[in-house]
Each structure stands twice: as structure tokens, then as C-alpha cells.
Amino acid sequence: MEIDVNSAIITEDDWRNPIINYLQYPTLPSEKRVRIMALNYLMWNGDLVQKSKDEVLLKCIGKKEYMKVMGETHEGIYGAHQGGRKMCWLIRRYGYFWLTMIKDCIDYSKGCEACQRHDPIQQAHLVPMNLVVKP
Fold first, then answer.
1. pLDDT along the chain (135 residues), means of 10
2. 40, 112, 114, 127: least surrounded by Cβ within 10 Å?
3. Residue 44, Cα to own-chain centre: how many angstroms?
């Protein structure tokens, strides 16, 4: 599966900006939170990549790119309408990362219209009503 996200344009409200600025110009003043986060990232051929715990480099992508990646993974040519956690696992396996990855994948899979139509309907078992008597 090949997803082209090389035409990424970093906008001002992108989550990657503070980290990229710190990695490119470490002598400029920056927040402590950014300096700590930057320990897990590096610049590779002009792209921000995350060093994962299992020694794999994951390309960090912005909102436009990750919406495209989630759409291709969930509904694309090989997409099997996976659930949120499985979709997140697949995207990491393809080599992509963003901060709110698990939450976004779960929200995307819950919002898929085809998944909602074909998902089995869960019904609560019928239970007789019991009166509650106030003492």
C-alpha cells in the first residue's frame, strides 16, 4: 500500500512547528515541554520523524495528511473497515505518526457510515421493571 504524503505543507497551527523550530535552532529560547518532547524526534531529509520505542523511525504528519492516511487505511483499496485500535496499529506499521493517533483512529472508525450500517445492532436484554418504594 502506497500513500503519497510528501507534498506536506506545514501550517502555523501544526503540532510539528515547535519541535521542528527547536531541532533546527536549539539555541533559541523555547518551552521546557518542547525541549523534552524533542528528545524523541529528529530531522531526517527535511522531515520530522519520531524515534519509537522499538527503534523504528515514524514520519510525523499533519492534519491533512493524517486524514488522507486514515481514509486510505480504513476505506481504501485494501481497507477492511478495521476498528480504531487495529487501524492505528496498521498506520504505525506503514510508518506514520501524529500525537492524537489513537483517539483520531477510534473517532474515524466510529464515524464511518458503512461501518454503522453493517455493524450488528446491540440490544439490551429485557428486564422486568421493579418498583422502588420510598421508605
1. 50 81 89 90 90 88 90 83 90 92 92 82 76 82
2. 127
3. 20
